[in-house]
């Protein structure tokens, strides 16, 4: 890979790039390779998913006390530190990474995304049955993750009051 940086955004049958594959590995060092070779962190596969979408779907069960920082959350932090990353890209279902993390109850991932400036008001597309139109908080409730929904709701109130300063500080601490 290092000798052919132009291949970084080549796609497989599913539209996945080297960065998508590296993101699934759960190994932050593997993710660094395509990023250091100019891989586009905003490149989407055929489902409209970026590497960040994948990271938000894969975090380990957060009750696992053997891991200090979930490797997928750490990879998300690495991606969030890329200045070109667009955090709120929507996939084919209109899900942003925060929608996915919220629905799956990935509390630490949700906090990281919010701290990095993810939209709390983005809505999913309405389907033909009139379902959808959910915000990240709504997705957390839909997934029955009350604690995750609560943190999103609390942060939305803080932002409404103009008290939030959005920085990527937490992401930089996680990748330390």
Automatic annotation (TrEMBL):
UniProt KW keywords: ANK repeat, Repeat
ANK repeats mapped onto the chain: 14-46, 93-125
Stored Gene3D superfamilies: Ankyrin repeat-containing domain (1.25.40.20)
Keyword Zinc: no
PANTHER family per record: ANKYRIN REPEAT AND PROTEIN KINASE DOMAIN-CONTAINING PROTEIN (PTHR24198), ANKYRIN REPEAT-CONTAINING PROTEIN-RELATED (PTHR24198:SF165)
The protein's name: Ankyrin
